[in-house]
Amino acid sequence: MNYSKRLFYTFLSLLFISINLCSAQSPTRLIAQPYNSLELTNLRASFDTINPVREAMISATRIYQEEYMAEGISMQYNRDFALIRISLYDSGYTYKAYKQELPKNTKWGMTLDQVQKRTGLLDIDEVNIYVRRYVTEDYVTDFYFTDRKLDHIKITATIVSLENNLANVVKSSGARLLPDGKPREGNVVDGFGTMTWADGASMYKGQWSYGLPHGVGQYVDTFGNKYEGEFKLGFIWGKGKFFSEAYNSSYTGQYVMSKKHGKGLIIYDNGMAYDGDWVQDIMEGSGTYFLGKNYFYTGQMSKNSFNGEGTLTSRDGVIAGPFKEGKPHGVCTQTSADASLKLIGNFTNGKKNGTFEVESSGAKRTTQYQNDVEVGLIKK
Predict the structure, then answer these.
(1) CA distance linking residue 188 with residue 177, whole number of Å
(2) Which single residue of 112, 182, 205, 357 has CA 20 to 30 Å from 30?
(3) pLDDT tens digits, 9-54
């Protein structure tokens, strides 16, 4: 193999490694993030078992815990639903082995000496001599050794990291139904009951647990907005349907912490609609946005707009390629509705700019566009 080929394959190998490193998500980077952050949402989506095997509210401390046995991980959240602790397990517990990236690039079964080659000298835990501790400003990592081999890791958030992420955590959650109203009937602690709030109009009727709306129920607020579906720990959380009286719109889909999160369909009073992915009330991921009759976009969404690869279909035809802030931006293919005209070239903020290959009724030509205006043919 000559030098240029060797250099090329070396470049490809380095590129492949860098892509994998970028896609890997170290669990320490998740500490102090809100429950419905994009990173934690993606982590849960990567699990074979999306729903946790066990979940519980530890009443005394108001800590919410999820345990994914098949994935070798458990996560604990504080009362604001910020991630305060991650526990990772090797096989041999009631958990199967956690198979994703471990902190400091360690591996299950490593000895203490092998771990310390990756981490540097670790502190000795004062309570448990089989635990070694790695401390940073944002988190504390405890490495547990059984028979001198690494088999359990616990990562805990520090006060500093929780304070630094508090604004994002507060922003991540919507309204929560706290039990400060007057019970009307039933069991509003752990059963089925109805509660009306001080405004006299807001009312919840459904299942309760931990003294909070938890399970299936119905809620009407003072503005006439209505929701029917699943609740968790006082939040609209799970699958349900929401109808807005003020905006005459409806949403059917998934919620997390009273925000649209997951898959969902929203229909507006003007006939526009969106069916796709949501993250914290924002259209984020992939979906279809219906702008009118025979006028819709299908593809990647970000920040409530067309961003990424997609296809825009209208009565005039189809534009396929990359989009930026709702407009074609990059090399796209535009095809007329009857497929008699096809253009391939660069779009800038929705306008054709530069060289375009044009095929019209079987005839091909190359031309130039400037701000959507054809300025001249290019002779070959």
Answers:
(1) 12
(2) 112
(3) 333 333 333 333 333 468 899 999 999 999 999 998 888 776 778 8
Note the pLDDT of residue 380: 56
Query: How is residue 81 written in tokens?
Result: 């639903």
Do 96 and 188 fall into the same domain? no
In a domain, 356, yes or no: yes
How far is 240 from 149, CA to CA, in rounded Å?
47
What CATH number does the domain containing 230 carry? 2.20.110.10
* Residue 122 DSSP one-character state: P
135 inside domain: yes
Which whole-number Å values give the CA distances from 257 to 46, 211, 274, in the listed order? 21, 17, 21
CA atoms of 355 and 162, how far apart (whole Å): 52
Tell me the whole-structure pTM to 2 decimals.
0.82
Of 286, 276, 234, 273, the C-alpha closest to 253 is 276
Contact partners, residue 240, CB within 8 Å, separation at least 6: 227, 228, 229, 230, 252, 253, 255
Query: Residue 31, CB half-sphere, CA atoms under 13 Å: how many?
Result: 26
In angstroms, the CA 223 to CA 245 distance is: 7
Domain count, the chain: 3
Same domain, 292 and 245: no
